[in-house]
TrEMBL record:
Gene, per the UniProt record: AAT-8_1
Coiled coil among keywords: no
Keywords recorded for this protein, A-Z: Membrane, Transmembrane, Transmembrane helix
Annotated protein name in UniProt: Amino acid permease
Originating organism: Parelaphostrongylus tenuis
Superkingdom of the organism of origin: Eukaryota
InterPro entries in UniProt: AminoAcid_Transporter
Transmembrane segments: 20-42, 54-73, 114-132, 144-164
Example of a GO MF term: L-amino acid transmembrane transporter activity
């Protein structure tokens, strides 16, 4: 799975770190931490071969009420906040991309990016409501390929600037 956080946080990390080297060290440490988390999930998945991820793992030790509470909190808070953050970031990036051809003030840019975020959330909700079996898998595949292309472009452009521009 490729998370979308890679497209949200680079600017903030670079600004807070103050240098490219320190931001790269931060990325490497975050990757190591994510790898440790993935290894834990691999261990849990092979030890408890049931579907349901965290719910199944917490229920396995007999804490079904806690597992139920966790599932609801994760669904209502964590997933909705993550989706809203991704949609807002999508809207901001689209507004930044069209900024050279539009004359939007900063408040108008913010409003347009929020409306774009609402639009993408509504489109995804409608897609999942009406055509989950037919189109959602294809859209997920296209989304993954787009992420891979974007990451490859970022790496390629970075290497180009590092090698040829110093």
């Amino acid at each position: 799975m490729i998370g979308s956080g890679i497209f949200i946080s680079p600017k903030g990390i670079l600004q807070q770190a103050g240098s490219v080297g320190l931001s790269l060290i931060t990325w490497v440490l975050a990757a190591l931490l994510a790898s440790l988390t993935a290894i834990n999930y691999i261990e849990l998945g092979t030890s408890i071969p049931e579907s349901g991820a965290e719910f199944a793992y917490i229920s396995y030790v007999g804490w079904t009420p806690i597992a139920f509470s966790y599932l609801w909190l994760a669904s209502l808070i964590q997933s909705s906040c993550a989706g809203a953050t991704l949609a807002l970031t999508f809207g901001e990036y689209i507004v930044e991309a069209i900024a050279p051809i539009t004359c939007l003030s900063s408040s108008d840019s913010k409003t347009v990016s929020i409306f774009l975020a609402y639009g993408i959330i509504l489109a995804i909700a409608l897609l999942n409501m009406f055509s989950l079996g037919r189109f959602a898998g294809r859209i997920q595949l296209v989304s993954m390929v787009a992420k891979l292309i974007a990451i490859a472009a970022i790496i390629g452009i970075g290497l180009f600037y590092m090698i040829f521009r110093g």
